[in-house]
Design goal:
Elements lengths: L1 H6 L14 H9 L8 E5 L6 H8 L5 E6 L12 E5 L5 H11 L2 E6 L5 H11 L3 E10 L19 H12 L19 E7 L2 E6 L8 E5 L2 E5 L1 H4 L14
Parallel strand pairs: 1-2, 1-4, 2-3, 4-5
Antiparallel strand pairs: 5-7, 6-7, 8-9
This protein binds S-adenosylmethionine (SAM).
């Protein structure tokens, strides 16, 4: 937390709006990205207060891109940052953003907080996330607010969508292929982390099918038999090399 403890009392006149407990989450999730230049995208500029913070947080030479639907946000662009005006729900705008500034190591969605936008944006930007990169969605408590497309256990909410991604990450293990077929996201999703109000998705590109290890006398024996031994019919059955 050292960076944020030092930085926050020294902020300038540009307003930043964040919940207090987010800084600990940033510290846990983003410290490892500070060592060398990265590509960072934040959705939502508002009054521009986060731009100088991220510029100081990440290594010099990082590509720091910010988007907002409000044209007045362009005025918050500072040296070392780029502000693009457009909607997180506009596929053409996102495509152009990826082509010009991607792929990204860190994506932070602090935009409209509407559940359908959070889902739409995740689906369009997830492919542009680098190996070992993180995709963070903030203020996911709006998943419990009907005005934002949420409501308790509302299937259309971002939290429920994220829970389904947890299922999809485990689709290697299914023996219920009709109900729960293999989902390719399992091949590129390292983990999903739920914090209070923030969901984090970490990418692992070209992830291998999980292997069980038997370890004895310094020898490691790998097997994927457990995947095929459950009568599965999906793509990884019969590919056991154990
Ligand atoms: C919570 S504020 C962002 C706060 C800022 N990240 C900070 O740390 O101070 C949300 C911003 O999202 C923008 N926004 C709302 N709908 C949007 C959309 N569809 N696409 C992009 N930005 C949007 C708003 O204009 C507003 O500036």
């Amino acid at each position: 937390m050292e960076f944020f403890n030092d930085y926050l009392p020294k902020t300038g006149d540009k307003v930043m709006t964040k919940w207090a407990h987010y800084f600990d989450i940033y510290y846990r999730e983003l410290t490892r990205f500070r060592q060398s230049p990265i590509k960072f995208l934040e959705i939502g500029v508002f009054q521009g207060g986060s731009l100088p913070m991220w510029r100081e947080f990440f290594a010099e030479g990082s590509g720091l891109v910010f988007i907002d639907i409000d044209p007045s946000c362009k005025a918050h662009e500072i040296e070392g940052t780029t502000v693009k005006i457009g909607s997180q729900a506009d596929p053409e705008f996102l495509k152009e953003l990826i082509n010009t500034h991607g792929p990204f190591d860190v994506i932070l969605d602090d935009g409209s907080h509407l559940c359908n936008h959070q889902i739409f944006t995740f689906e369009h930007l997830w492919p542009s996330l680098n190996h070992q990169g993180v995709y963070m969605v903030e203020d996911v408590h709006t998943s419990y607010w009907p005005g934002f497309g949420g409501g308790y256990r509302n299937e259309a909410s971002f939290i429920e969508y994220s829970k389904r991604i947890v299922d999809r990450m485990h689709s290697w293990y299914t023996d219920q292929d009709d109900l729960f077929p293999f989902d390719p996201i399992a091949q590129e999703l390292h983990s999903v982390r739920f914090y209070d109000s923030i969901c984090v998705f970490e990418k692992e590109k070209e992830k291998e099918a999980p292997m069980s290890l038997t370890i004895q006398n310094g020898k490691l024996l790998g097997s994927r038999k457990v995947l095929s031994g459950r009568g599965r019919k999906s793509v990884f059955a019969n590919k056991d090399d154990g």
